[in-house]
Amino acid sequence: MKHMKNQTLLARTANALAGLRHAVVSEHSLRFQLLVFTLVLLALAIVRPGAVWTALVLLASGAVLAAELFNTALEALADLLHPEQHPQIKIVKDCAAAAVLIASLAAVGVGVALAIHLIA
User: Fold this and answer.
1) What's the CATH code of the domain at 53?
2) How far apart are CA 115 and CA 95, in angstroms?
3) pTM of whole model > 0.70?
4) Active-site residue among 27, 68, 75, 84?
């Protein structure tokens, strides 16, 4: 297999989309996050909060999706390298899940701040 760094932009993009496709098919939590993101996009289209708020919401949403994908990748790698249960592998997986939780809470915080801004 050719190293990703030496591939064309088109090939690297195809690899990234293959990873996204795999994660969507295999991870229930990512499908849930994508559903929430779709609802967020719909809400943005309806509310039209302005460019800065839209950018903040999209950035926060993207961070959640990216964290979920990193979590999926780390779990797959950990399971491949150490299929048996191991306390250190559990820590790795728990920390990756915590990253998703933190990103999700931050995104909720952005949503709450936007709601307060719209009400005020």
Assistant:
1) 1.10.287.3610
2) 30
3) yes
4) 68
pLDDT of the residue at 94:
96
| CA 114/CA 25 separation, integer angstroms | 32
Active site residue 68: yes
* CB neighbour list of residue 94: distance below 8 Å, 6 or more residues apart: none
Q: In 3-119, which ranges are continuous DSSP H helix? A: 9-26, 28-47, 51-81, 87-119
Host domain of residue 38? 4-119
Q: Render pLDDT for 41-73 as a digit per residue (tens, 0 to 9).
A: 999 999 999 999 999 999 999 999 999 999 999
Which residue is it, tokens 């191991």? 86
